[in-house]
Write a structure and sequence with these properties.
By secondary structure, the protein is mostly helical. It contains twelve helices and no strands.
């Protein structure tokens, strides 16, 4: 736990690094993390603002913005047009850089990619081992590793556990299958002779692969890259293309909104009168008529028989449950 003296010292040190305090210092500090500004929706820097104002002066007679809303949309159209042009300029610049780099750094760049794959070989040996064998530089990396393992095996007539794991990684053996018998660990023959034979076989195979089909493929890829073809497939140019398409979308959206605002200002919509519907007349209630009084006759035994419902001959099923109950009740009263 910090003491009171340490807490006081920390507070004093914090007062010495509070960042910029003036407006100019804060404005400059905002630009520390900006690399190109292509993904931003604002214009940063004095030179960018000068370009915006210059283009606004050129385009103002054509667009003729009127009012604060149209002025803001007009400026957004100008800003995005400059950003699109900047993306296009950077695109061609990076294409030329890709071609020039292929002329002088082809082998070094491909070697660096192969070294990156080899450093992560233990994570997925089967996949990364085959990827290394897809290029001349990857075969060179594997040949150097096999040569080092052969030298250690010749001197010590055995490998350490890490060296054995590296050899199995180069062979592409899955990590879950290394406890069983492998090509490097035979059960009935001499381990030293078997491992030496495996290493020599791999060295010969990789050398033939490197000097055969991969050599012609590498020369073709290099000539292809020197003409800047395929540069658009690289990560920087794909990111630049995404920035350009985003700027075009923002410019198109601002342009449409500006045209809509001009149309609305030129022809204001007429006021719409809201008609209130007339209340519906309620129908007059009909006069109630007294029901006709029917003569009441006393219920006698002869009249009870009138309520006995006979079975309908045309009905195949007969009487329902309610009628049967009514007949039974009348029969009980009559009996």
């Amino acid at each position: 736990m910090a003491t009171e003296a340490q807490i006081a010292a920390n507070r004093l040190n914090a007062l010495k690094s509070t960042g910029p305090k003036t407006d100019d210092g804060k404005a400059n500090s905002r630009l520390n993390a900006i690399h190109h500004g292509l993904a931003s929706v604002l214009v940063e820097g004095a030179s960018g603002r000068e370009l915006v104002e210059a283009r606004k002066g050129l385009w103002r007679p054509e667009f003729k913005p009127d009012g604060e809303t149209q002025e803001g949309l007009f400026e957004q159209v100008v800003v995005e047009s400059l950003r699109v042009e900047r993306c296009q300029g950077a695109y061609f610049s990076l294409c030329n850089q890709h071609g020039e780099r292929a002329k002088v750094q082809w082998d070094a760049d491909r070697r660096r990619e192969a070294e990156t794959l080899a450093s992560d070989l233990a994570r997925n040996p089967r996949l990364l081992s085959s990827q290394l064998e897809a290029t001349v530089q990857g075969c060179d990396v594997k040949l150097e590793l096999w040569a080092g393992l052969l030298s250690s095996l010749t001197r010590h007539r055995d490998w350490t556990d890490k060296q054995r794991s590296l050899a199995l990684d180069l062979l592409g053996v899955h990590s879950e299958l290394r406890d069983a018998e492998t090509t490097l660990d035979p059960s009935l023959v001499d381990v030293f002779e078997t491992r030496t034979a495996v290493v020599n076989t791999e060295i010969i195979r990789l050398a033939n692969l490197r000097d055969g089909a991969l050599a012609g493929l590498d020369a073709h890829d290099r000539a292809f890259a020197e003409t800047t073809l395929g540069a658009e497939l690289t990560a920087p140019l794909q990111l630049l293309d995404r920035y350009e398409r985003a700027a075009l979308r923002r410019q198109t959206s601002a342009w449409r909104k500006l045209n809509a605002a001009k149309v609305e200002a030129a022809s204001p919509a007429p006021a719409v009168e809201i008609e209130t519907p007339a209340p519906k007349a309620k129908p007059e209630p009909k006069p109630l008529s007294l029901p006709e009084l029917l003569p009441v006759r006393p219920l006698t035994l002869e009249r009870r028989s009138e309520y006995v419902v006979q079975e309908c001959p045309e009905h195949p099923i007969g009487l329902n449950r309610q009628k049967r109950r009514a007949i039974a009740a009348l029969q009980r009263r009559a009996g």
